[in-house]
Amino acid sequence: MFIPNLNISLPKWIHDFLSAEEIILPNIEDRMRLAVKLSELNITEKTGGPFGAAVFDDKGILIAPGVNLVESSQCSILHAEMVAIALAQKTLNRFDLSDGGKSKYELITTTEPCAMCYGAIPWSGVSRLVCGARDEDARAIGFDEGAKLKNWKEELQKRNIEVRCDCLREEAKSVLKKYSLIGGKIYNSGKYS
Fold first, then answer.
1. Distance (Å, rounded) from C-alpha 64 to C-alpha 81?
2. What is the pLDDT of residues 99-121, one digit of tens each?
3. Euclidean distance between CA atoms 34 and 113, whole angstroms
4. Strand partners, 169
5. What is the arrangement of strands in the sheet containing 162-164, beginning at the earlier edge strand?
6. Distance separating alpha carbons of residues 193 and 91, to the nearest angstrom
7. CA–CA distance, 6 with 181 (Å, rounded to integer)
8. Contacts of 185 (CB under 8 A, 6+ apart)
């Protein structure tokens, strides 16, 4: 039986777009703008769905970008948040970004996390989650975000993960709308449109 390797490769355009040696964005809105731009370029470049994410340290230094790679990788777990978290962990060479609580990292995501990404956040070691568009905005264009606790924000906060929602919501939501208008594939398990 052949068992392939699982490698996460970002599209070439990301390397070109993020060509600076170090990207420092001290303002949360600027960090969200970067994630929104990643999501927009992901659909413009036809490399994936309308979702972007990034992990930053507490000084606003970009550790890892993430875009949705579900279709291009043929791997349903490669949502933007999962990609950003995995690449940040590889960059820092540790599975716990917080390094046992010594460091603080934040996950910026253009849309509130789906059920899968929500489940990964507490295990990742991030201390803050910042979201743009809402779950309902993704569902409005046809994405199935899965079953999530109604009090999901409070549950993360119980784990010392700060949650901020609606950061540049309209900008993030506009990428979802654009994806829908251009006929972007809605790739829910078991059904496609």
1. 10
2. 999 999 999 999 999 999 999 99
3. 17
4. none
5. 62-67, 52-57, 105-111, 128-133, 162-164
6. 36
7. 32
8. 49, 71, 192, 193
Residue 189: band (very low, low, confident or very high) from pLDDT cuts 50, 70, 90: low
User: And the tokens for 158?
Assistant: 């119980």
> What are the two backbone dihedrals, phi and then psi, of residue 8, each rounded to the nearest 5 degrees?
-105, 115
For 94, how many CA atoms within 13 A lie in the half-sphere containing its CB? Answer: 13
DSSP 187: E
Compute how many other C-beta atoms are within 10 angstroms of the C-beta atom of residue 154: 10
Q: What does R_g of the chain's alpha carbons equal in angstroms?
A: 16
Which residues belong to the active site? 81
Cβ–Cβ < 8 Å for 46, 37 = no
**β-bridge pairing 128-133 and 162-164:** parallel
Beta partners for 65? 54
- Residue-wise over 129-145: b if at least 16 C-beta within 10 A, else e? bbbbbbbebbeebbbeb
Q: Are 94 and 100 in contact (CB under 8 A)?
A: no
The structure tokens listed for 36 are 């929104």
Q: List the domains of the chain with CATH numbers.
A: 22-179 (3.40.140.10)
pLDDT at residue 193 tops 90: no
